[in-house]
Amino acid sequence: MAETAGTRDKETIGVVGAGTMGTGVAHLFAAAGHEVVLVDTAEAALEKSRGLIERNVAFYPLVDASLPRLDPAEVTGRIVFSTDHGDLKTSDFVVENVTEKRELKEELYPLLDEICPPHCVFGVNTSAVSITRLAGRTGRADRVIGTHVMNPAPLKPLVEVIRGTHTSAATVERTQALFRSAGRDSIVVNDAPGFVTNRVMMLTVNEAIFLLHEGVADSAADVDRLFKDCFGHRMGPLATADLIGLDTVLLSLEVIHDSLRDSKYRPCPLLTRLVDAGLHGVKTGRGFYAYD
Ligand code: NAD
């Protein structure tokens, strides 16, 4: 099937999953003037997402003065919030951001393949799941690509784009053009568990949790301050883990661990304990730190 779309200035972007990432991705594209269809199976996630986008459209320009001041109602007015995957049928490009569970993503792709028009590209936003494997669940492996967007999406200038085994050059080009239309640059890497960023990041975060777990450091704040003040990092690894979501960190480590069968990615027991206790970081109000 020829790749015909991607020529219009404004496209319809399907965003699947309205959690931490889907909320940011929907915000990013709606703020850039695209029409967005945001789909989540949970009505509550969609409600929360609408509130967060309204708040963040007003708030982010205070954090980054280069961002335009937009009318929150106008931005959310470009987003259709829906629990029906069938509403993705008009999408030119889908960015999928559902929970980091391989089986869940594997079940979703045949459904997306059935619903979305043939020209639609599937961008997989995942921390570690294989793009090639998900592409194999569709009849359009050349139009499936990794779009690893960082958190919070409207504030991060760079996207890690992942080329699966069958991803076509045209799909790579189209994906980069779409992100450029939202003011985002991208770097293309090849498919491997955790890609470039999370192969390093998840290991670092997990090791920092081990240092707290083993009592090498007395507190999360001590670990983070060493990274901020000694190495000039903007955030320490434990605050970063809270921002990502400790549940997502654990799931990502499990995917990389399973994929590489390398014990260095085994999740720290303290991480598992925090997740079991429902302390998932910023999104639940408590993780290594407490949040309002
Ligand atoms: P999250 O847990 O905050 O949100 C996931 C959302 O997906 C939930 O609202 C859930 O209801 C929804 N969902 C689950 N199954 C669905 C389905 N079949 N259809 C529609 N919605 C469904 O997770 P998140 O942190 O937003 O992560 C989403 C993806 O992005 C993961 O693959 C993660 O690895 C990746 N990612 C996360 C970060 C981060 O910092 N959190 C950064 C980059 C990439």
Spell out the blueprint of helices and strands.
Elements: E1 12-16, H1 20-31, E2 35-39, H2 43-63, H3 72-77, E3 79-82, E4 93-96, H4 102-115, E5 121-124, H5 131-135, E6 144-148, E7 158-163, H6 169-181, E8 185-190, H7 197-213, H8 220-231, H9 237-244, H10 246-260, H11 269-276
Nicotinamide-adenine-dinucleotide binds at residues 16-22, 39-42, 45, 97-100, 104, 108, 125-127, 148-149, 151, 244-245, 248, 252.
Bound molecules: nicotinamide-adenine-dinucleotide
* Number of helices, where a helix is a run of at least 4 consecutive DSSP H or I residues: 11
Q: How far apart lie the N and C ends?
A: 50 Å
Beta-strand share of residues? 5-15%
Radius of gyration: 19 Å
CATH homologous superfamily designation of the largest domain: NAD(P)-binding Rossmann-like Domain
Task: Specify the biggest β-sheet.
Answer: 8 strands, mixed
Pfam families: 3HCDH (PF00725), 3HCDH_N (PF02737)
Keywords: NAD, Oxidoreductase
Family: Belongs to the 3-hydroxyacyl-CoA dehydrogenase family.
GO molecular function: NAD+ binding; oxidoreductase activity, acting on the CH-OH group of donors, NAD or NADP as acceptor
